[in-house]
């Protein structure tokens, strides 16, 4: 899917449309999530997402564990 944040300023994807791919595969009793995000307009935008995606995925994992 495409992923776009920001409004052309130096936040998020800076208003650029990037490509996000999410692959879900069985992994023992759980599911492995592989996220690939490409097409960043700047190194700064890339760095922000490298920092924030693990945090977002940790929050998702916590929510899923709480539902189990």
Q: In a few lines, what is going on in this structure?
A:
This protein is of the alpha+beta class and 68 residues long. It has one helix at residues 43-67; strands spanning 2-3, 18-27, 30-38. The chain has one domain (2-67).
Can you put this structure into words, describing what you see?
This protein is α+β, with helices and mostly antiparallel strands and 68 residues long. It has one domain. It has 1 helix and 3 strands; from the N terminus they run E-E-E-H. It has a 3-stranded antiparallel beta sheet, with no helix packed on it. The chain is elongated, with a radius of gyration of 14 Å. The model has no long low-confidence stretch (mean pLDDT 93).
Structural topology:
Layout: E1 2-3, E2 18-27, E3 30-38, H1 43-67
Antiparallel strand pairs: 1-2, 2-3
Keywords:
68 residues, three-stranded antiparallel sheet, 37% helix, alpha+beta
Q: How much of the residues is beta strand, in percent?
A: 25-35%
Proportion of residues in helical segments: 25-40%
Largest sheet: 3 strands, antiparallel
* Physical arrangement of strands within the biggest beta sheet: 1-2-3
Provide the gyration radius in Å. Answer: 14 Å
Counting H and I runs of at least 4 residues, what is the number of helices? 1
Unreliable segments (pLDDT under 50, ≥5 consecutive)?
Answer: none
- What is the approximate shape? elongated
Taken in chain order, the helices and strands follow as: EEEH
Mean pLDDT: 93
Q: What is the terminal separation in angstroms?
A: 28 Å
